[in-house]
C-alpha cells in the first residue's frame, strides 16, 4: 500500500477495485510517529473511507483517501 508522511504521521492509502463493478473504493490507515517502524501506533485503522463517493479510477480513489486523511489530521490538530 502506498504511503506518505502528512503532519508527522504515516498515511497509507489505497484504491481498491469494487467486485463486479467498474468502480474503485478508497481505503486509508493513519499511524503515529514512531522511531521503530515495527511498532507503529495505529491512530486510524485501515478502513474504507469516502463511502458516499464513486471513483472511476484507482488514482481518483487514492486521491479521495488522501483528502480524508488531510481532513482527519487537520481536525486532530484542532485547526
Overview of this structure, please?
The protein has 79 residues and is an alpha+beta fold. It has one domain. The chain is built from one helix and four strands; from the N terminus they run E-E-E-E-H. The protein has one helix at residues 58-76; strands at 3-6, 9-17, 24-32, 41-49. Strands 1-2-3-4 form a four-stranded antiparallel β-sheet. Strand 2 (9-17) and strand 3 (24-32) form a beta hairpin. The longest helix is centred in the C-terminal third of the chain and has 19 residues, at 58-76. The protein starts with a strand and ends with a helix.
Q: Would you count the extended β strands for me?
A: 4
C-alpha geometry: globular
Determine the fraction of residues in helical runs and give it as a percent range: 10-25%
Instruction: Bin the strand percentage.
Output: 35-45%
Radius of gyration: 13 Å
Strand order of the largest sheet: 1-2-3-4
Based on helices, strands and strand pairing, what is the structural class? alpha+beta
**What is the terminal separation in angstroms?**
28 Å
Biggest sheet overview: 4 strands, antiparallel
Determine the mean pLDDT: 92
What is the count of distinct domains? 1
**Number of helical regions:** 1
pLDDT < 50 stretches: none
* Helix and strand pattern: EEEEH
Topology summary:
Blueprint: E1 3-6, E2 9-17, E3 24-32, E4 41-49, H1 58-76
Task: Describe this structure in a few short sentences.
The chain has one helix and four strands. By secondary structure, it is α+β, with helices and mostly antiparallel strands.
